[in-house]
Amino acid sequence: MKVRAVLVAAATLLAGATLASAATKDDAVAMVKKAVTAIKADGAEKAYAAINAGGPYVNGEIYVVVSDFNGVTVAHATNPKLIGKNMMETQDVDGKYFSKDMTALAQKQASFWYDYKFVNPVTKKIQVKDNYCETLGSSRVCAGVYRP
User: Fold this and answer.
1) What is the CATH number of the domain that holds 119?
2) What is the span of the domain harbouring residue 141?
3) Which of 11, 23, 47, 57 makes the best surface tag, with the fewest CB within 10 Å?
4) pTM to 2 decimal places
5) One digit per residue, pLDDT tens: the chain, 148 residues?
6) CA-to-CA distance for 63 and 6, rounded, in angstroms?
7) The total number of structural domains that make up the chain
8) Domain for residue 73, yes or no?
């Protein structure tokens, strides 16, 4: 009986730890602010190289992506194949032109949230992603969290 109680307690603690470690919108905002601060302090070239290397610009499912107002990805913390690629006409599985939409918002607002469907790098499943972006010059710096 005691062994069962210990196993139940351990399972409960593990479940709580898993939930506690889930990414939050606040985590995405903090990641974007960290990247914006680095770009302003170190200049785009040095900061983009650091973002492209991943490191502090990746935390589980949260990662930084920087795109210019032409829709070209100029820095990507998890997928170097997208650097230099124009994503303006790319659609999610529901037909949303997410890059075009986010670029339009970035040209009007200093910061915003935008949701679309994308592959979660942790689960490898298509999920709704809540993306937080800040406008910096003629680019947008974004990071997001995936809904369960």
Assistant:
1) 3.30.450.20
2) 23-146
3) 11
4) 0.84
5) 443 433 333 333 333 333 335 899 999 999 999 999 999 999 999 999 999 999 999 999 999 999 999 999 999 999 999 999 999 999 999 999 999 999 999 999 999 999 999 999 899 999 999 999 999 999 999 999 999 9
6) 37
7) 1
8) yes
